Amino acid sequence: MLDVAKTAPLIDIAKVCRSFPKGSGDDLLVLENVDLTIRSGEIVGLLGRSGSGKSTLLRIIAGLISPSSGSATCRGETIKGPPDGVAMVFQSFALFPWLTVLQNVELGLEALGVDPAERRKRALAAIDLIGLDGFESAYPKELSGGMRQRVGFARALVVHPDLLLMDEPFSALDVLTAETLRTDIIDLWIEGRLPIKSVLIVTHNIEEAVLMCDRILVFASNPGRVASEIKVDLKHPRNRLDPQFRQLVDSIYARMTQRAEPRAPSVEGIPGTGVGMVLNHVSSNLISGLIETLAGDPYHGHADLPVLAERLQLEADELFHLAEALQLLRFASLSEGDLTLTDAGKRFANLETDARKKLFAEHLVAYVPLVGLIRRVLDERPSHSAPAARFRNELEDYMSEDYADETLHTIVSWGRYAELFAYDEQTEAFSLENPH
Amino acid sequence: MMLPRFSPPALGRLPRPNIWDAVALILIVGAMVAIAYGARQTEAPLTSLDIAPVSLDPWHLPLYALRTTLRMLAAIVCSLIFTFGYSALAAKSRRAEMVMIPMLDILQSVPILGFLTFTVVFFMNLFPGRVLGAELACVFAIFTSQAWNMTFSMYQSLRNVPKDLEEASQSFHLSGWQRFWRLDVPFAVPGLVWNTMMSMSGGWFFVVASEAITVGDTTVTLPGVGSYVALAIKQQNLPAVGYAVLAMLAVIILYDQFLFRPIVAWADKFRFEQTASGTAPESWMLDLFRRTRALRALSVPFVAVKNVVASIPWQWPWPGQRAAADAPPSRALDVVWYLVIAAGTAWAGWLIYQYLAASLTLHDVASAVGVGFVTLARVIVLIALASLIWVPIGVWIGLRPRLAERVQPLVQFLAAFPANIAFPAFVVAIVHFALNADVWLSPLMILGTQWYILFNVIAGASAFPNDLKEAASSFQLSGWRWWLKVILPGIFPYYVTGAITASGGSWNASIVAEVASWGSEQLTATGLGAYIAAATTAGDFPRVVLGITVMCIFVTLFNRLLWRPLYAFGERRLRLG
Question: Does one domain contain both A372 and A408?
């Protein structure tokens, strides 16, 4: 038994699948055949778009949810419930607002039954380490976001976990604060001052992954799976401007925008295509804005995604959604991390508002199967109206309720902009009547 | 002073009455029937009860007030215990929740004073010949007026604990018991404190009403402010009524300053918000307590006990949290459970039928429903009148922050004041001018509850955003247009909250308001409240059960078909910020 504990990797995930019940009653697969091993002394990153199942995998390792199939072990033992020696830092900080900083940090030790004197000593040490001196008796609501996440780190570190799980720990912070905190954590890690052996970080920020990780697992969506694994051999501290660093970031962008072989969009029944396509909400203003930016100086219809992300101050994830919306509507094409305007896109950039709406409407009907379906149903019905539930049910055959909501929300907002149909939020019904 | 808004618990979850409401109604009425039946069976001569007669000497009033207050305290402790147990069970067990929550919903609409009929006899039979039975009955009556909305609030909090905190406590290995005290309870505190405060306000009304009560040949007179007033009415002593009003004023002020202000100020730290906002509630009492070492020392043992208890690593006997999507619930067990519920409901239904059919006919049901409509009409007219009066006044006050700050505590206080103490003054006037009781007794129903409308409208108008006010005046909106387009939609959600509380309170008050007396003079208005009151005095249990059931159905339908849709509409369309 001892031998196993010594030689077994910290975490071993083999052929793990996880599905959730869907609105329509069937199960939706969010994680498919994932393998992952975490050993001592490394920082592993799970990088992927929202909905790629990376958070689900993190929660399986944290023992918060169990896999539907496959095996998940911690030091050779199957994970049932939160394993010992694993602590977690949350995206939303998850601090208890009624406890002071010190009490929050002590909480984990209390549950472990550490005696009060020892508890206090270790908590103060963790607070000291993470740079929270002087804030011990403050309540979380008195702190800024960055300080709050420091409390989150102190609370996780104080239990001296072998594995520290981080669930997008910097994404709720502003750019500057996130950078400061990130650098502080990396510095502590390379100096060997963190009382932990390994780190697993979930992120959708490509640069963050390259900056921190020794190994990056890039996730693909629908269903979530590991698309590729990338080793990062750059020396710490890493420099974002280093050409090698830039090259790595560019290549990951390219990998993440590489679509799986285009599936015929008319084939209904495959999730991700046809009516069952998940549409992330992107406002029509942003779409117009991006097309204008792309058409103008200095891009002239062609741009590199990382450059755009920097220029527009967008998270990679947001930019992906936006770029994909353009691609779906055939206003631009996306390949190898580059976004290129199509002829229609260039035309769109030069049109007046009403003409833009008309062009947008044409593309919407032609390329978004759900919009076509709604128009058809509205035209066929004598009342020219249809309840949203009619389409929601159909969507839920392919996706979870949340995604169905998001998709409908997107359709409503695009349809309104294109003046294709009206939607009454009160009665939750689509109709052809537009107030004049 | 800005108060946090909590949605009234009468607005549970389901928009329309459904099968579960029917199940809950039958189960509850069934339980009442069982108690009533038991009470009748073991009826003993209770007239011999030896209770010190109440005297109208004002110098006795402080002592009476103290006893009344102690009853309140006892009831609130019972309510808290009930709240913790019931809501924890309902929140943690899906199967229990199926029955318990609709039950709670129905219990909220049961007229408390109707309840008293059985409980008085029941408790007095438990302790024959002793004051304890009567005391318990009184405490139980207050308890029934307080417990339901507290429990609802706690249950709703328990079900809405933020997911990330839940994961954090799981990930840091907190046991079920530890999690309950470290996460669930603190998260529920603000809502619970607010609802306890509202319950207390309502409670004074019932403590006064239940201290002196006659059920058939059983008369209970517990020394307290309520029985003092009852005696004053019997002896037509108007000055004594005045003394009682003063005593009550003093009690409520002391209660508020020494108990509730400090608790509200203390509970502020549990408010779930990530940023410090607005002004925190203050209490000189809490400040005093925090500053003086001697008083602080008093709390040390309590804190120590709390810490020890809260850290016990007990797991729940059932699997911790609702195992989200993990283990799908067992279908077979569900079926068994449904069968148990169905059987229980059928049995309760049969019991009710047996009991009522023995002495009542369909004609009785029709007449109870008939007078129900009369009371319904009264409630609607009164709420409308009160709204017409208090909405403009509330808006006027609310838009003047300095004034609102001063008026708001006064209104809150008026809401807590048991209006039934002041009833005699009105009855004297009605008798003196020989007015029509059917019309003029009605306002008594809303005397104590109208303040909730004013209170909430002031809160809504104070919270109305300044930029919208400025926008309205820059577009020169005024007169009717300003009322219809600007302020009324702005305060609508607040108004509905107030109106719901007011209407619920009016139904309850109808039992004491539709029948009034002054000395030997008896005034009766036609209505469901008078129907229940008459049946109570006559000790006619089947009619009491019938009356309560009818009122229960009226209140539930009124809430579900009118208030909930209005509330949902307000929340969805007119919520600002």
Answer: yes
